[in-house]
Input
Amino acid sequence: MSDLVAMARIGLAFAMGMMLVCIEAAAQGRASEVNLPAMKPGAPPDDFKFERTGQGTPGQWIVVSEPTAAHGIAIAQVSQDRADYRFPLAIYQPVSHRNVDVVVRFKPVGGSVDQAGGIAVRLASPDDYYIARANALEDNLRFYRVVKGRREQLEGVNVKVASNQWHTLGLRAEGDRFTVSFDGKPLFTAEDKTFATPGKIALRTKADSVTHFDAISLTPLECPAVPVVSYGEQNDR
Output
């Protein structure tokens, strides 16, 4: 009997602790945008760290004047190294999330090998993360997991991705489910359990893609419900 009471108390304490964490997360779970207006054209974007998956030279990330962007500026990857298995990353440093809804506007500007733009979530290292990316030369949208630098496609669709036009790409990570949207429309959902802990969020391009990014929105999601087993329920088993 005393063991059952102790177990029930431990379970209740755990559930209450999780509830407090979830209440705090819900209070903070409002959409926030990366502060592009505070950034200076010609300089690297503030609050980002720059890495690369694969081969070739590092990416060159810079803030550029962009008259068609929401605030007149954008974050751009401008290096044109043609190495095919080359994925420049701009990793946002202030936050880490497990469950998060990320939406970004991007514009493929140039590239002869690729014209791609993507969002990475649950990034543990430059070689380990999930990525949703759209490619204007291939007219497709793909969702991959990248493990130890090797990518594996989990889902994807063919969709028109126009060059030199702004598009909206969304990636919602919630538990084991990942929902990818394009230009405001959900396109598919994939499930995977490879990366289950919080990680960084990043922008990503491929090969010689010159891509502009704008209006980067992050929304932390609420925690899932935690079942609570009462002492009476324990005693009935």
